[in-house]
Amino acid sequence: MDWNSFRLILAISRTGSLKGAAKTLGHDHSTIFRWLNTLEATFQVQLFERSAGTYRPTDAGERMLLAAERMEEEALALDRDITGRDARLSGNLRITCSESLAYRLLNDLLVEFRARHDGISIELLVDNRQLDLLRREADIAIRATRPAEGDLFGRRLADTAWALYASPAYLAGKPTPVAPGFAGHSFIGWDTAATAAAATWLTDMVPGAAIVYRSSSLINQMMAVKAGIGLALLPCYLGDPEADLVRVAGPEGALTRELWLITHRDLRNTARVRAFFDVVGRGLVARRDLLEGKG
């Protein structure tokens, strides 16, 4: 057996399908299907139970999965250890943050970062999911949550405040928005599967019939407010700078979150990671009033 066999087991187990494994490993579905069949034929054992298109490990598959996870962790630990010793201000940094932070704040800060450290290239993963820093899905994350895993290192930068926004054209001739219920007003909300605190707040505070438009994108929600569809709950750093939006309520204290810059402990002394913490971290702290809805 080689490492690719274990990677195959990991990918199928984590995605639950051959299609998901193919995407993870960068191959087509037929190749993954052929590899799995070859592996099972070699050991003369079934590694996955197939039911309604979902693949679940058998006992033999679970045994191989545990071994694969141990091997992966050792490989990742070695990678972090070697990378953590890197004193060069060059190479690649994989950064992850939310769509709204990338849109409003990060590009301006990256201009300064690149001016100071032009030997470092940036790969930005704009994703509202929390990518796994332990598995090196990213090197650095900018998150609105305190790091919980013991192997992560973080720097608290500021709080992030949320408020309700509308366009002046939408508000013309309408009653003043008053909580709870905000009677007489339409709302722009999240997609029905969203679990974000802002989505929960809207569900608790606003009748379902008042949410007339939904989107999984905060940028799209902001543009819908500009178009006059209704009110939307936005981070203050996103809504306040828009000249054609007005804040009509808030900030909502229950939605305030801490903003953190996070990396793995093994990487915190890598020169390019330290440089990013210095330039981008300092730049975000300098924008604290905007992030906290005070500016």
Automatic annotation (TrEMBL):
Q: Name one GO biological process term.
A: DNA-templated transcription
InterPro entries documented for this protein? LysR-type_TF_proteobact-type, LysR_HTH_N, LysR_subst-bd, WH-like_DNA-bd_sf, WH_DNA-bd_sf
Q: GO terms for molecular function, please?
A: DNA-binding transcription factor activity; sequence-specific DNA binding
Which SUPFAM superfamilies has this protein been placed in? Periplasmic binding protein-like II, Winged helix' DNA-binding domain
Pfam families in alphabetical order: HTH_1, LysR_substrate
Which of UniProt's keywords are assigned here?
DNA-binding, Transcription, Transcription regulation
Record bears the keyword Transcription: yes
HTH lysR-type domain boundaries: 1-58
Coiled-coil portions:
none
Q: Does the keyword Transcription regulation apply?
A: yes
Lineage: superkingdom: Bacteria
Spell out the family assignment given in the record's similarity comment: Belongs to the LysR transcriptional regulatory family.
- This protein is called LysR family transcriptional regulator
- Organism of origin is Nitrospirillum viridazoti CBAmc
